[in-house]
Amino acid sequence: MKAWFVSGIAAAALLSAGSAIAGSSLSSTELEPLIKSGKILPLEILEKAARDKHPGGKVNKGEVERHNGGYIYEVEVTDADGKEWDMDLDASTGLMLKDDDD
User: Could you give the CA distance from residue 59 to residue 97 in angstroms, rounded to a whole number?
Assistant: First the structure.
């Protein structure tokens, strides 16, 4: 019984740590070395890629998150007609992964 209880606690700790890493947004202090090393593109380039998809669009909110060993730029854009879009870009390449109307 005691071993099962300890195993359960260890599993719960690992699962919660894994989920925090998988979906955690990066702070500016975490982003800076990734940009300097070339692991991710500068935010200005990622924002431009999002706006280019919806000409005349405005970036409302954006953040870089760790995801499956890589980095995703999640961004919300309002286009020139006022329609909102949820977009995901690969933060390393700028490749569009998702472009859904909100």
Answer: 17
**pLDDT tens-digit readout, 50-97:** 999 998 999 999 999 999 999 999 999 999 999 999 999 999 999 999
**Both tokens of residue 42?**
């500068």
Task: Give pTM, 2 decimals.
Answer: 0.75
- How far apart, in whole angstroms, are the C-alpha atoms of residue 18 and residue 25? 14
The CA distance from 55 to 78, in Å, is 10
3-state secondary structure of 19: helix
Question: What is the set of domains in the chain, with CATH numbers?
Answer: 2-101 (3.10.450.40)
